[in-house]
Amino acid sequence: xxxxxxxxxxxxxxxxxxxxxxxxxxxxxxxxxxxxxxxxxxxxxxxxxxxxxxxxxxxxxxxxxxxxxxxxxxxxxxxxxxxxxxxxxxxxxxxxxxxxxxxxxxxxxxxxxxxxxxxxxxxxxxxxxxxxxxxxxxxxxxxxxxxxxxxxxxxxxxxxxxxxxxxxxxxxxxxxxxxxxxxxxxxxxxxxxxxxxxxxxxxxxxxxxxxxxxxxxxxxxxxxxxxxxxxxxxxxxxxxxxxxxxxxxxxxxxxxxx
Amino acid sequence: xxxxxxxxxxxxxxxxxxxxxxxxxxxxxxxxxxxxxxxxxxxxxxxxxxxxxxxxxxxxxxxxxxxxxxxxxxxxxxxxxxxxxxxxxxxxxxxxxxxxxxxxxxxxxxxxxxxxxxxxxxxxxxxxxxxxxxxxxxxxxxxxxxxxxxxxxxxxxxxxxxxxxxxxxxxxxxxxxxxxxxxxxxxxxxxxxxxxxxxxxxxxxxxxxxxxxxxxxxxxxxxxxxxxxxxxxxxxxxxxxxxxxxxxx
Lengths: 258, 249
Prior knowledge:
Chain A is mainly alpha-helical. Chain A has helices at 25-41, 47-63, 68-86, 89-92, 108-134, 137-146, 151-180, 192-218, 235-257, and strands at residues 98-101, 104-107.
């Protein structure tokens, strides 16, 4: 079977009955977003702030019993792309000592900047991974809706989640059917069939969109997503939000004051 | 006798094409289970889309006690449940529970009532344990049953199913049949699967050329080889409609 994609690596992980999983999704969205914002906004030299953010995330992962291997595997889906954007920084930025690496020169300032950027990227990614591991996608959507994120964006996110799996299954079937008929492109010209596959996929997705819309109308859709029962924000949720957002924030404020 | 569906001279054509419904007359009484049979392109799905106002042709059409017109659409869509052929079209929400709640919430019910409806509908199709799951995690047979639950939750007077037995293995097909046989209310089943129609519906109509070409007891229609041949309908080899027992509720 062809290897699929990162879609399989979604869904909650860790202890589903654990204290973090059971929290109001708004507390987790806000808390983990705060960690990311604090890390991203910290200056390059503020290592204690970054260390505080990392420690906070580590505590959340341990309490939620999300295994480190799961976090690493899920983070590895996006991190290489994020780091790729920063990998040229040590070579183009000047300042401090320099070392020769083959024909290129690496500067101390460049390396420091790359290190800080990489730390921020890891913290942001792991925050998102922990949110995904402790909060199902539907619950996250509910939280976003309750936090007054524009309804249309939440709706689009929901459909993307639902139909990513359907479209991925169609891609899999089309690839299998190509392979079954001996399709093994050796030249760029032969790969043109893939363009036609993409076209067919687009047309199918478009037709499905039409059918889904009709199915929504048939069940009384009138242009706005009906609201479910409101979420309940309790003491445990406030405590989680206070600790997860509070520790990094205090460190950051202390850093500014110093 | 009160009617759930009353169509008189219903005509409809897609833009630039020939008429798909060409003066169709049909009456379906409360509580009846009727199979709509016919070859591809006979207008079966087009008729289904008329029944809750998704398409509107000329002629008279009254469904679940309401004339089909713009002002009655919200009420009509709560009273008529359509189950589409592909459950992936029908199940568009991230979880089964949210999907089943979609119709009742649109109908303006309060949260406690919606929760009760969701539990009842999922229990009725024997899918109560899947409420929290995502539709892509279910088998085709399970998705088909959840699709039925999504419309049951609005307690429709009329339930219309498009090819409900398509792509189901024999066991999933039997389970769906048992679920449908256990439902109260009026049932209209659009299908190619003649044994399925024979097991579920006491009455069948054959749609051909945009009209009702035959209307009668399912067992009698299926026992008429000339009629079946004229309308490109075929029974599986060895199937004897006279010996079919209807699935008990």
